[in-house]
Amino acid sequence: DISSKVDYYLKQWRNADEDETYVIPANCPRFGTRFVDVSAGPILESAGYVFVAILGYIFLKEKFTKKKIIGMVVLLCGIALFALGGYLPFFNS
């Protein structure tokens, strides 16, 4: 059951030392980007903010405010421009 696994890891997280709570999340993006193209790294890093907001809504019951929604839309538009930059005619010199 996924909820029991999440509860287990949250209990482990709360009992961890301060150093451990910093090292794990700080190195997750580095570990994840080792397996993708160099050009996809910034896209994944930027998309992380959207994933955090969605996971906060699902697991922590956080509300989506207007600022959050506008920020996510702007961020996703920026990611799209970056990802499609080579295919859009006005980006080619």
Q: Tags for this entry?
A:
single chain, 93 residues, mainly alpha
- Average pLDDT reading: 76
Principal-axes shape call:
flat
The termini sit apart by 53 Å
Which range does the strand content fall in?
under 5%
Overview of this protein structure:
The protein contains four helices and no strands. By secondary structure, the protein is mostly helical. The model has no long low-confidence stretch (mean pLDDT 76).
What is the structure about, briefly put?
With 93 residues, the protein is mainly α. It is built from 4 helices and no strands.
Topology, element by element:
Layout: H1 2-14, H2 18-33, H3 41-59, H4 66-83
Helix pairs in contact: 3-4
